[in-house]
Amino acid sequence: SARMMLEGPIAEGSTFMISGRRMYADLLVPMFADEKKTPTYYFYDLNGKASFELSSADRLVVSAYGGRDALNSRAVSEDVNFDIAWRNSVVGVRWLHILSPSLFTNLSVVYSGYGFSARVQTEPIAGDQDFYSSSEIADLILRGDVQWFAHEQHTMKFGVEATSNFYDAAAESRIANQLQSSIASAPSRAFNAAAYVQDEWN
């Protein structure tokens, strides 16, 4: 596997960071094993973050993550072939604003997503059975927080959050290229909201 990271300044008070990883088993395994009998696997992910000082009272932070895993049987087999993959992604933006030395606000927007797909074929050369499924989940979150330091022994926190949820899935099964059963794609959405108040005394 290999890793890399790069970080540094963008401007005065602003910085960035980028990192990534990649596994190379899919390239190395064929050198030491029969690719017709040995499945291959690899993954990669990338991270990024940038922080901007907009003013003495404002800071903006942008972050992102993306990754993918894949497992497959590379070559055509007489018994079973498969191709399985899944991925994750997250993107976030956060704004910190200082209203006064004792009062802070945080506003953030976050998107997260997950996807999965799988195809399995038994006796693929004869075209016997073929099964495929996929699914996807995504959330979009809007959150606002306020933190007030009334005095050294007293802190209050309160905020609101709204979340939009998305879900979809589909599947089908075939025998000799003839459709046997299927679950049609049917996207589903939901919405949630919450609020909180927290009072701390030390």
Short note summarizing the structure:
The protein is 4% helix and 77% strand.
Poorly predicted sequence stretches spanning 5 or more consecutive residues? none
Share of helix among residues?
under 10%
- How much is the radius of gyration in Å? 24 Å
Q: What is the percentage of strand-forming residues?
A: over 45%
Biggest β-sheet strands, sense, barrel: 10 strands, antiparallel
How many helix segments?
1
Give an account of the 3D structure.
The protein is built from one helix and ten strands. With 202 residues, the protein is mostly beta strands. Strands 1, 2, 3, 4, 5, 6, 7, 8, 9 and 10 form a ten-stranded antiparallel beta sheet that branches. The longest helix is centred in the N-terminal third of the chain and has 8 residues, at 25-32. The protein is elongated. The two termini are 48 Å apart.
Notable traits:
single chain, 202 residues, ten-stranded antiparallel sheet, 77% strand
What topology emerges from the helices and strands here?
Blueprint: E1 2-11, E2 14-22, H1 25-32, E3 40-55, E4 58-72, E5 80-100, E6 103-122, E7 129-151, E8 154-175, E9 178-183, E10 188-201
Antiparallel strand pairs: 1-2, 2-3, 3-4, 4-5, 5-6, 6-7, 7-8, 8-9, 8-10
